[in-house]
User: Fold this.
Amino acid sequence: MALSIANGRGRIADINVTPMADVMIVLLIIFMVTVPRLREGAVANLPEAAHSRVEGEGPPVVSVSASGAFLIDGLPMLSLDDLAAAVQSALANRADKTIHVKAEAGLGYSEVGRVLEACRRAGAQSVALVARPRLRSGR
Assistant:
């Protein structure tokens, strides 16, 4: 609180709102940076594919981040066994036993292979790897 004297009539107490405004601006910037990242999900950097197609609502999506975290439809899994159980329950009532796998670009095949094997053990008959379309250069 700041105190000021107004024309000798006594003290007037004012609240200094500048620090509060500074904190609010910093929080606004933090949220502006983090919210788009949350929408992308755990895997932001997908590999490119020359031939790809965009699909609507489809099979469950298993994501593997560069840090080694596993997610199924956005829900984090602690281990491959948890992932396999979640895949099995996701495929239980579906006629199409397909799983889509999103793996971060540059991730080693051994990590992706472990996820693919866990999906196969859980009952997935078909596994599709998700990639972003390659931008065509003025051809």
